[in-house]
Every structure is written in structure tokens, then in C-alpha cells.
Amino acid sequence: MAFIRLIVFGFIGLSILYFAVTWFARSTRRERLEKRWDAEHPDGDPAARAEVVERGVDAFKTSLAYRAFLLIYIVPAALVLANLIVTNWN
Amino acid sequence: MRYVKTTLKTIAFVLIFSLLHYVLPQHDVAKITSTEVIRMDFSSLNRWFFAQSDSGTTELSTRDMRLINTQRKKTMLLGFFQRETEGVMVFRNEDTGWIWPPYFKFDSSDLQATASANMSAPAAEKWVVITHYGWRNRFFTIYPNAIAIRPVDGPDVRVIPWFNIFFFVFVIFGYFFLRAMWRQFMERKVDPLLEDAGEAFDRVGDSAQETRGRIGRWLASWRSKPRR
After folding, report:
1. For residue A44, what are the domain limits?
2. Contact B111, B93 (CB under 8 A)
3. CA atoms within 13 A on the CB side of B167
4. pTM of the entire structure?
5. Which residues in chain B have their CB less than 8 angstroms from residue A33's CB?
6. Contact B148, B130 (CB under 8 A)
7. How far is the C-alpha of B147 from the C-alpha of B132, rounded, in Å?
8. What's the complex ipTM?
């Protein structure tokens, strides 16, 4: 029972962290794309700017670096497992 | 107002410090003098400071508890400096299981056997390093919980608290990461909303020159400061 509780609350907590971190990553990426566009096209078309930025963010979302954020779930689980083994290994 | 703020900050600091001091692992250099089992009848006062019955068993209001009696080297300043004097210390030995604090300890019985195997005698002193968390308090009858016992050659060992080092590095890293995340959130999500609202408000009050100034100043206090 306690194990299930740990799983459930751990999953909720890590999900909050996952969404916060991925939002942060997307947001900083978007900002960087916007700034780069602004630097390259000082008086560019806003529609083109929006499209380029949107495409850049979408590309980022399918990148390996973005998928690596799933480590937010994997690393704590692995740490718990390692801790479990180290503490109880005889 | 300043006093209230200072008081609240002090209380928060004391609470967080106490929590960490209770939960984070500490190391004692000790001689195990005996082990025993006593029956514990918890009160609402000290129940907080105990774990629960062994992970495979059921929870009753009263149960037996393993204790490890030791003679340990006294320390000072959060255990960083060892003193020459010795004192007694009694550890409890309970499963933390899947519950708080997250030590995931299920091997209380094995640990008790380890304690028995490393018993010290007056003629043949045996020293061990006991990893534990928690406090000893005579008035509440609470004991620190032993997590691990490691035999060492003598009392002069230097234990490096690797876990605590990594923990605090992680906390500092996490603080700056959260702060950056918060700033990004304010800059990208909250500020644009406030700006829109502020402009609408300013349009409405064409005679309210003074109000506009005040709103503007209030908004400025919300905007993120320019990064250095």
C-alpha cells in the first residue's frame, strides 16, 4: 500500500516538474529563435517571424535533447532503486 | 512590518534547518555495547518520531522495537569535529520502508545482526561507523534511527559526508534553476498580460494622469529587472 502511494505521489510530483521544465526549455528556445530572427531581419514580416519561430520550436520538440527530459522520470526512479540496493544489500 | 518579516524568515529558517538536521544522514564513530528489544507504547507526542512496524507486518498501536546501545565519540558543530570525550547513545533500528524519510530501509533485522556481530568488549574494543538520522531526546523518548553499520579499525576515522555534499549542491542548483524558470514565466506569460491590462486601463482614464503614473509604477515593480 505504501509502495503504491509512493508511486502515485512520486508520479504526480515528477509530472509537475516535467511539465515545468519542458515549458521552460520551450520558452527559452522560442525566445532565442525570436531574437535571432530579429537580429537577422531588423524589419521583417511578423507573419514570417511567427512561422519560423513556430517551426523552430516544433523541431525542438522532436529533438533528442527534448526527449532527454524524460530522464526527469527515469533518474529519480533509478536513484530510488540504487538507494534500495545499497541500503539493503548485505 | 520589518519585524514581522524578520520573525517569519527566522521561523522558516529554523523549521527548514530542523527538518534537514533530522532527516539528513549523520555519522557517529561508536562502540556497540549491547543490543536489545523493548516494547514501545507510543503517545501522540512521540509517535511522529518513529517509523512504522517492519515493512511486511501490520501496524498496531504498540510493538517491539530494536535498540542498539553504544558508546560513541562525541562531536561538535553538526558532527564536523570529533571531540576526545565519549558518551552513550542509543539508536533505534526500524524499517523506514517506502515511507518518509526516503532511506528505503527494509533490513532492520540484518542490521541488528550486524550490530551483534560487531559488539565491542572491554578487552577487545571494536569500532564502527553508524550512519543514522534523527534525534535523541530523553523527554519525548525518541531515538535516532540507525541506517548502516560499518566496522572501522579505530576511533580516528574521518568520514566524508558525500551524500550531504551532493544534496546541498543539488539544492543550490535547484534554487537557481527554479529562479530562472520563475523569471522566464513572469517575463513571457505574466508581464504581457499585465501590459495589456495596463494599456486598457490607461485608455479608459484619459483624465487620470496621476492614476496612470501610479499604475505604471506598480507595473514596473512587476517587470523583471534587466539581467546583468
Report:
1. 2-88
2. yes
3. 9
4. 0.79
5. none
6. yes
7. 5
8. 0.82
